[in-house]
Design a protein that fits this description.
single chain, alpha/beta, Hypothetical Protein Aq_1857, Chain: A, three-stranded mixed beta sheet, 8 strands, globular, DUF779, DUF779 domain-containing protein
């Protein structure tokens, strides 16, 4: 059994489809920094440079999900689900002009899940 670290709701998938139609291939990044960095931000893959301290936690609905290594320390025991809510965020994420924003919902992995969890990919 292989356990993924991240998933996405059907509502968030619909927004990804809408953004993908306009912007092409997409990715998510969660930095933990300023400008709503604690929320997942969605970018066109051509508009964001992944840093050497970022980890690739997995791919969800055709989008790679990256997180800063220091931010991951707080999330390493959690399963993350990308969702969407009404309300304008203050980041540069592509969904912001739609009057919505992506959020992360989280839960602790069970002991069994944690034994079979996907190891984040370290970028060099």
């Amino acid at each position: 059994m292989h356990i993924e670290r991240i998933s996405i709701t059907e509502e968030a998938k619909a927004i990804v489809d809408k953004l993908r139609e306009k912007h092409g291939e997409l990715m998510f990044h969660q930095s933990g920094g300023c400008c709503d960095g604690s929320a997942p931000m969605c970018f066109s893959v051509d508009d964001f440079i992944v840093g050497s301290r970022d980890l690739m936690l997995g791919e969800v609905y055709g989008c790679k999900f990256y997180m800063a290594a220091d931010q991951f320390e707080y999330y390493k025991n959690l399963h993350l689900t990308i969702d969407v809510v009404k309300g304008r965020g203050s980041s540069f994420s592509l969904e912001i002009p739609l009057g919505i924003r992506f959020i992360i919902r989280s839960r602790l992995f069970t002991d069994e899940e944690f034994e079979n969890i996907m190891v984040p990919e370290i970028l060099d």
